[in-house]
Amino acid sequence: MADIRSVFAGIKSPNPFWLASAPPTDKAYNVERAYKAGWGGVVWKTLGEDGPPVVNVNGPRYGAIWGADRRLLGLNNIELITDRDLHLNLREIKQVKKNWPDRALVVSLMVPCEEQAWKAILPLVEETGADGVELNFGCPHGMSERGMGSAVGQVPDYVEMVVRWCKQTTRMPVITKLTPNITDIRQPARAAHRAGSDAVSLINTINSITGVNLDTFAPEPTIDGKGSHGGFCGPAVKPIALHMVSEIARDPETAGLPISGIGGITTWRDAAEFLALGAGNLQVCTAAMTYGFKVVQEMIEGLQNWMDAKGHASLDDVIGRAAPNLREWQHLNLNYVAKARIDQDMCIKCGRCHIACEDTSHQAITAMVDGKRHFEVMEEECVGCNLCVNVCPVDGCIDMVPLAAGTLDKRTGATVSADYANWTTHPNNPMAAAAK
Amino acid sequence: MADGLYADGIAAGRLPGEDYEKNFADLHPPLDGHEARVEADRCYFCYDAPCMTACPTSIDIPMFIRQIATGNALGSAKTIFDQNILGGMCARVCPTETLCEEACVREEAEGKPVQIGRLQRFATDAAMQAQRQFYQRGAASGKTVAIVGAGPAGLACAHRLAMHGHAVTIYEAREKSGGLNEFGIAAYKTPDGFAQAEVYYVTAIGGITIERGKALGRDIALAELARAHDAVFLGMGLAGVNALRAEGEDVDGVENAVDYIAMLRQADDLGRLPIGRRVVVIGGGMTAIDAAVQARLLGAEEVTICYRRGQEQMNASQFEQDLAASKGVAIRHWLQPKRVIAENGRVTGIELEYTVLSNGRLAGTGETLTLKADQVFKAIGQSFDAAGLNGSGAAVALTGGRIQVDGEGRTSMPKVWAGGDCIAGGDDLTVSAVAQGRDGAESIHRALAG
After folding, report:
1. What is the CATH number of domain B33-129?
2. Which residue of A76, A281, B251, B407 has the fewest C-beta atoms within 10 A of its own C-beta?
3. Residue A436 — pLDDT band, cuts 50, 70, 90?
């Protein structure tokens, strides 16, 4: 069976699945339940500086969006960092680490953007025996108004400055957690890397409002008639997270920097995709908050099954394998031609492919043939856009079939070339580097 | 002599009192809000949706389901009522398994169609419970239209005519409106006085007068109606019942299924409604099923449907047949009634002959079977009773014993339209009657406006 033991930034865990810093990791009770359920590690919910803890709202802390059958697709929160006493947390961390020596225990931190504040808290964490720290430069709500969280993560210079303070102060591995609420995710990653961060983790939550109550005209979640933007997470954010992870994984300036992948990981498949795009391990929160800690068992099992089936012996065989296949658009092969093909035996004749193509795309799918309801691709019109595949309710009913080199593309009248050719040399490109 | 379940002959009170309410409760309980949302989410919002094509009233089903999914039940109800003002009843009684739900692409995909009928009920119930009226009576046109029959066709016709501002008088032979909705459908499909509630809802638009106890040919004459009104719409349904053509059928205990169902529907206390211990129902359609199932629900010990052809030829849908089987009704095929056996003028059994199809024709084999029976229900179809029609004076052409109409519902007699079960080529469905009533009204309106 595939070996999924993980070593991330020097931190060992029996599997790559950690619980992200969030409500599920706020205290010993939850963390021990998580370890019992099989989680490889946790990032303890963010600790703040010594003194009176922050307070949370006493109304709703979460909002959500749902898909069919009220399946939770995205979750938003306005909860702050831990509202428990610092020393209580530290005592529990120490005890839990002692009880569970084989599991990873990383402590998330967020203190004011002052050298003294960071240098004061790090030794306290070190004393617990925790495996590392994660710097929370991500939370976009509440704490950011106080100059912490994403307010730091959005300014690469601050990221670099704080990471440097931490690296000067502690022997523990430092993971820098990044906010996605930024234009170019590589900038804060590079800053963290310059300052010697041992790893980055991303994404933290995305600024969001999940809805508006149309009776009261209040944004949701609503506290006494008012709302505040919160951090969005869950399955809906996965594509954004995958992209940001891959951006850092491919960036030559941060080559080799371990990445902890976070953002909507719900199944083993999601996890494998993050690994393939360059994540070294995985952090999960919403899936656990939706279904409980047991979901990790499916993730572990599923990942191993897939690795066994594909002959991947260890995580290193998987990590980053898809990253080289991510290219800039201009380097995609314009001589590749694919056409949609509808499997008539699988087609249930809902007609969604037709109407999507007819109304909004290329008028390339029939609705009626010889007086009968019949949906078929007209190759002479099909540009291979894949919209029909995406709207079809039957998995596998519509395929994109590549045309073999030498065959005729009925739409363009040209013969499909076996040669690779991209935009950089295309005659329509005024900037084309003409190959002479 | 035994009481209750095992009382011989035809007897009332076969069951403990509380069983009647339970037995005749809603066959398909209403969906609650969550169930409706989940079910609505299953709809694919098909292009040129097959369900919509399969609906005789062409309700925009994907749209009304989408409106439910988005929490807009009243908007959904309006989408339904725009095409079918009796959408509430149709939601309950339509054989959806052979109409919209059979056409649903989910039926093809997974053998489990979206429950369109129950969703339609969810939306229409919401509007009716909120007493929300979506339509206003049109500005008075000065024209008057007479409608014969306050059943589904007549009500749908009246509502659409009222929308166009015509003054409508409906003449109803019975003392209660609703037609088969009130008198002819199994009680468990439309409990709690829904048929009357719907009559009220439909006529609340105004401009519709219903005169009850007025039968064509008895109290009113067609020629007189045509003279006194700008147009007439005939929607009187089928008053006749086909005979068994079995020897000795004119004895006590041999009854028309439709009459028994009508009696059941009007009964205040089902515990006082007599039913046989052993009941045989002759026929293979919905009425046969409705009679047989209700006989069981009233406590009949043995109920057997005998149909002269095979299972595939039964007019009752598979769902209805399964329903009957689940209620303990035995369905026997290839048996035709030969002779009713009676003692002292009361039925005690029925002799049936086995049948076969030979060269496409049904023929008796000569072999017979005798079933004990305290009560025999005839459910072998109804016929149009033309006596009241041509007896009125003017001739209305018939085809196959029913009123002949053109594509717009016009009869051969000027100013007279017809729709519902009384016309030739009908399929004896409530929903088709509604469509014909509605379309007849539009045709009348065009004629009156022109």
Report:
1. 1.10.1060.10
2. B407
3. very low
The domain covering B4-14+241-381 belongs, at the CATH homologous superfamily level, to FAD/NAD(P)-binding domain (3.50.50.60)
The residues facing A399 across adjacent strands are: A341
Residue B390 pLDDT > 80: no
- Per CATH, the homologous superfamily of domain A6-325 is Aldolase class I (3.20.20.70)
Do B108 and A349 make contact, defined as CB atoms within 8 angstroms?
yes
Could you tell me the pLDDT band of residue B393, with boundaries at 50, 70 and 90?
A: low
Question: What is the pLDDT at residue B350?
Answer: 97
In 3D space, the residue among A307, A272, A198, A313 whose CA is nearest the CA of residue A17 turns out to be A272
* pLDDT tens-place string over residues B103-132: 999 999 999 999 999 999 999 999 999 999
Amino acid at B387: A
The strand ranges marked E within A54-103 are: 62-66, 72-77
* Candidates 3.30.70.20, 3.30.420.10, 3.10.20.740, 3.40.50.360; CATH matching A329-425: 3.30.70.20
Q: What are the pLDDT digits (tens) for B34-85?
A: 999 999 999 999 999 999 999 999 999 999 999 999 999 999 999 999 999 9
- The residue extents of the domains of chain B are 4-14+241-381, 33-129, 144-239+384-449
CA-nearest residue to B46 within chain A is A350
Is pTM beyond 0.80? Reply is yes
Give the torsion sign (CA, A330, A332, A335, A339): negative
Can you give the residue ranges of every domain in chain A? 6-325, 329-425
Which class in CATH covers the domain with range B144-239+384-449?
alpha beta
Q: Which of B38, B41, B46 lies closest to A350 in CB terms?
A: B46
User: ipTM for the complex?
Assistant: 0.87
Choose, out of B31, B34, B43, B47, the residue to mutate when testing the contact with A (most A CBs < 10 Å). B47
B105 inside 8 A of chain A by CB: yes
Token output for A351: 């007609």
Contact (Cβ atoms closer than 8 angstroms) between residue A268 and residue A299? yes
DSSP string covering B380-409, please?
Answer: S-EE--THHHHTTSS---EETTEE---TTS
Q: Are B4-14+241-381 and B33-129 in the same CATH fold?
A: no
Q: What pLDDT shows up at residue B392?
A: 61
Picking from B38, B47, B105, the nearest residue to A354 by CB comes out as B47
Nearest CB to A355 within list B38, B41, B47: B47
* Contact yes or no for B38 and A70 at CB 8 A: yes
Q: What does the block give as tokens for B137?
A: 């009576």
Q: What is the pLDDT of residue A434?
A: 56
